[in-house]
Amino acid sequence: MKSLLNKALAPTALAISVALLAGCQSIEDGKDGINGKDGVGQITSLTRIGRTDSQGFDKSAAEIVAFDKQNKRIFTVNANSGKIDVFNATDLTSLALSETLDLGTMIVNNKSDVSATSEVGAANSIAIHGNLAAIAVEAGTKTDHGWVVFIKLSDLSVQAVVDSGSLPDMVTFTPDGSKVLVAVEGEPIDYTVDPEGRVDIIDVSDFSLKTAGFTDFNVGGSRASELPSKVRVFGQIVDASGKPVRKSTVAEDLEPEYIAVSADSKTAYVSLQEANAIAVVDIANANVSKIFALGFKDHNLLGNELDVSDKDDKVNIKNWPVFGMYQPDSIATYTVNGIDYVVTANEGDSRADWGIAQTDGTKDFAGDPLNVNMEEFRVKDLTLDTTAFPNAATLQSNEQLGRLKVTSQLGDTDSDGSFEELYTYGARSFAIWNASTGELVFDSGNEFERRTAVKYGINFNNDHSENDPDGRSDAKGPEPEAVTVGAINGRTYAFIGLERMGGIFVYDISNPHAPEYVQYVNDRDLTQDPDKVGAAAGDLGPEGFKFVSASDSPNGKPILIVGNEVSGTTSVYQINVTKLQ
Predict the structure, then answer these.
(1) Does 8 fall in a domain?
(2) Is residue 468 in some structural domain?
(3) pTM above 0.85?
(4) 445 to each of 19, 203, 304, how far by Cα in Å?
């Protein structure tokens, strides 16, 4: 992996104390000859200027956001309620709820085969282009087919309701507005049924639908040999008692999470989070062109340190013999000198939630009834190979690697029941990839944990719904989830949200091989406990971002709109730019 970190801000492989965290060391400056777009030198910073009242604390009440520039409105997905909250954004400092769209009622009134709102489940995503909003809605039983609801922005009436696949999880327009793409996750409930994941492509001119699926990559399929070996496919279909019936197919196991589209509207990049991969889709032909395996991040390398224990009561960011699976949630695209790049927020996720326990007495590593699809274990519950880990007993203590959550599906390289390698979820970073080759050109290394530790000390790696200092160090750390990009005065910026610790990181990514840290902003008040005071503790759980350029913004300044899932608030950050003479 090249250019893992342009400016890896890590001193050594020793435990990093807060006092040492301000160290800075340059590793590599990227390839020669690939420069970012020239722009005027400028200082950029974010300031929150507006915030809605909470629409429900810890109820997934403010997830994905979209902006209607024609009518100066912000649309926010109030997920579990199955509704969309519409806020008047004429005055960004005073956001007022003006409408609530009940998607269940809209679908019942416009689909003859849906007779009750109980058949309609959560709203998952919204996108806006021109006079249309497209909203992804899952069924009441998420393995049933869902819908994409098209709303006319002029009067908020239904233009069309299009049948989609099982669990349409994310929706986006192509930049030219001609098509809507849907990440159909096809997530199982308990692995007795595992719908196929796919990408739906809806032509806005007539609302016709085509599908790009993965069946050709199944074992025995015409393209099975094209599936990289490092793509994580391992699910098993089970019967009602939890006993395995057969292996999931590739198409069943791949679950599209998020879609980013190239500027020319021809190519879609789709994150396959649990599989640790990205699919490339030819939009015109509704075909999966290729699948990239994203590989693994070596946390034993300088610059890739992490804190792995929630029980040591200290900041302990250091090198460990662990690999991280990138497993991005949100992704974005941008172009530099004719080359497309994909920006990923490397959150991490397991398939641990989707199985049921066997009842035949078989036990897992921890001595519990075996869930055949369970893959998430703590290091202390595994048997480590003593040749690979001669200090295994020490490593497996709670103060060292013992508490870290890892997968059981990788690392037992000789299938003898003991692990020669360890693989954890997510990379605790954002990364930039060459969209054509799949090459990693930049990774932010340990910077998210390092900078939050400088700012908060032991309170870093906190949870989002309660104050639990160091509480997420064993499980994906700060969990970077949301990402978007935006151009300001010829410079391109990436905005990355930390789901757990909260806050927004800003980087200038004009040169994809050498991004520059700009700012970390977080309004969270750690003197307040969220489970007691709710949204009064600040914006918690940033889930969805929308960048709005100055030309489209109500106040003539570029803004970032943030949906905060846990606090239930939607916030507006003004992006202040000072040009340097």
Answers:
(1) no
(2) yes
(3) yes
(4) 19, 40, 5
Quick one: pLDDT at residue 366?
A: 62
Could you say which of 408, 423, 438 is where a domain stops? 423
Residue 392 lies in domain: 350-423
Helix (H) or strand (E) holding 351: none
- Among 33, 39, 30, 38, which Cα is nearest to 513's? 30
Q: What Cα–Cα distance (Å) separates residue 149 from each residue in 82, 258, 418, 500? A: 12, 18, 50, 31
Specify whether 203 is located in the same domain as 266: yes
pLDDT at 199 over 90: yes
Query: Does residue 447 share a domain with residue 412?
Result: no
Summarize pLDDT for 217-269 with one digit per residue, the tens. 999 999 999 999 999 999 999 888 888 899 999 999 999 999 999 999 999 99
Nearest partner of 483 among 557, 560, 552, judged by Cα:
560
* Domain identity same for 367 and 334: no
> How far is the C-alpha of 26 from the C-alpha of 44, rounded, in Å?
23
Cβ burial of 546 (10 Å; 0-12, 13-18, 19+) is buried
Q: What pLDDT score does 364 carry?
A: 66
Tell me: do 260 and 370 sit in the same domain: no
Q: For residues 547 and 558, is the Cβ–Cβ distance under 8 A?
A: yes
CB under 8 Å to 415, separation ≥6 — which residues?
none
